[in-house]
Amino acid sequence: MSDVIFDDILCKVGALYMAKPYDISIKRFIKIMKSKGGVKLSEDNLVKLSPPWYTFFNFLKHSIGKDRCVEVLEMKEISDSNFIIQVEVRSLKKALALADILLRCKSFGNIIVRVEVLHCGQAVKPTGQFDDICRVIEVFKDALGTNHYFECIEFRTIFDSEVIFPVFKKEVIQFFNDDLSDLYSNFNGVAAHVFSEVLKEQIGNVSILPSTTRATL
Questions:
Q1: Among 48, 132, 151, 196, which residue has the fewest nearby CB atoms (within 10 Å)?
Q2: How far apart are CA 104 and CA 159, in angstroms?
Q3: What are the distances in angstroms from CA 66 to CA 143, 150, 177?
Q4: 74-120: pLDDT as tens digits
Q5: Residues whose CB is less than 8 angstroms from the CB of residue 121 and which lie 6 or more positions away in sequence, other chains included
């Protein structure tokens, strides 16, 4: 089998990553490899890189899914460019709350991933009822109260804007992700960062900023 220049590999997988520099570690790996003067790899040994929509699925599975009342089902391919991730929730109250705080749609170039919350197999729609910041706080508590990583929720007023800080444990979320820059090909991320990838950035007029528990000296 003939060798291929590393740049040719980038052309083959580039379409997956052009929409957004989703995995910074991949970019770092590329920089290192190219600095070596064009490392040659055998086609037999090419590593299949995880598309970013699979990484997004794993973000959901290993964050929201770490909850005794929640099951993140396997991602389904609806068409070549459309996928759906369904989240089954035991409690209707919790399901409604999760539907309110989770991203409903994520795009990766021409690839669209929808997130659908289910209760007893039936789709649950967001309520969209946020009268004030107290209601938003209540929704977050309902949604994340039994989650392994969730600690508490705080709010502040910053420059006349209301901000909510869901606070998560100081733990690393890890899963296999074909990460070429990691010895074991894993993704490794602080819990708060992973939750920021799957939660809405704003609910009503309230900004959402996932944070990590206070450091101890």
A1: 48
A2: 29
A3: 12, 10, 18
A4: 999 999 899 999 999 999 999 999 999 999 999 999 999 999 999 99
A5: 88
Can you tell me the mean pLDDT for 174-183? 90
Residue carrying the six token digits 């502040």: 156
| Contact between residue 199 and residue 166 where contact means Cβ atoms under 8 Å apart | yes
Locate tokens 């590999």: which residue? 9
Nearest to 144 by CA among 49, 208, 189: 208
3 state SS of 59: helix
Over its C-alpha atoms, the chain yields an Rg (Å, rounded) of 20
Give the residue from 182, 183, 186, 185 showing the smallest Cα distance to 172.
186
Task: Grade residue 7 by pLDDT with cuts at 50, 70 and 90.
Answer: very low
**What are the CA-CA distances from residue 189 to residues 53, 114, 160, 163 (Å)?**
17, 23, 32, 23
Count of residues in the chain? 217
Q: Return the residue matching tokens 């309110």.
A: 100
* Res 132: pLDDT: 86
Report pLDDT digits (tens) over 128-147.
888 789 999 999 999 999 99
* Secondary structure letter of residue 213 according to DSSP: P
> How far apart are alpha carbons 78 and 19 in whole angstroms?
20
Look up residue 173 and give its amino acid.
Answer: I
Tokens encoding 135: 């209601």
Alpha-carbon 206 to chain mean position: 20
